[in-house]
Amino acid sequence: MQRALTERKRRGTSNRRLAKKYWRMYVLLAVPVCYMLVFHYYPMLGAQIAFKRFNPSLGIWGSEWAGFEQFTKFFSSSQFTRVVPNTIFISFYALVAGFPIPILLALTLNTVRNLYFKKTVQMVTYTPHFISVVVIVGMMMTVFNPRSGLFGIIFQSLTSRMLPDFFAQPMGFRHLYVWSGIWQGMGWSSIIYIAALSAVDPELHEAAHIDGASRLQRIVHIDVPSILPTAVILLILNCGSIMSVGFEKAFLMQNTLNLRASEVISTYVYKVSLTSGRSDFSYGAAIGLFNAVINLSMLYIVNLIARKMQATSLW
Predict the structure, then answer these.
(1) For 174-184, what is each residue's pLDDT tens digit?
(2) How far is the C-alpha of 295 from the C-alpha of 240, rounded, in Å?
(3) CA 208, CA 187: separation in Å to the nearest integer?
(4) Interatomic CA distance for residues 39 and 41, integer angstroms
(5) Do residues 313 and 307 lie in contact, with contact meaning Cβ atoms separated by under 8 Å?
(6) CATH architecture label of 64-310
(7) How far is the C-alpha of 34 from the C-alpha of 139, rounded, in Å?
(8) pTM above 0.85, yes or no
């Protein structure tokens, strides 16, 4: 017992000496810690608004407690059967269609021997990531305009018929939303895979080439296994935001004709919380909290499956 107390005292003294010696490091560490506490953890106290009948004059703490009333209101509303399926459909569509493309792009660029061509393709595919969402939507509206857009003019000259208005069709909205996002983000998303491929030992490829392996066989048996852990981690993170369809693009592309498919959770929360005649902050907060719980559950489930199957996981 005495030995344990002595050892604990010695460690405490050693820690104090290290803290005194490296106090500048702790000062630098205090800045991000304070940032996380103030802007990420403290706002979590406001989540209780989802369980209250919020009254701005009384504030969050003084408002009347309502329990799960706001959640029940959302689950029983007619919008629940529309916004939730729309959000899930668009998210899964974007995940299934968009997740493999950066991997294929990285694998393809990794096999290119012409350095100038490789850098040019990288620059061209990276650039859309830095274009704002407003500009992207404006470009789509201009290009796909049935009368004056590029595709409208080409379609009319080839078929003598007017191009359908994709922004006025529910399925057209979904395709435009997903594939414009893929086009905008595939180059940026491929960076991490290109970095992982750069760490592959060239001797593996040389040995496989000597043994008679084709380029495709080397990609399948050397490159793909090397980036598989990275791909699994990114897949887990993407599944953790499966219910988080971007608000800006969906709201900008939304109109009365495609509302049946374009109304997602984020746009619905905005409307009921800020733009309706009677802003219901508690109702919007309840929907947002429900969305966050689903995302957290998906993150945990996919991480558990990945750990069982690939031994690669976040925790």
Answers:
(1) 999 999 999 99
(2) 5
(3) 29
(4) 6
(5) yes
(6) Orthogonal Bundle (1.10)
(7) 41
(8) no
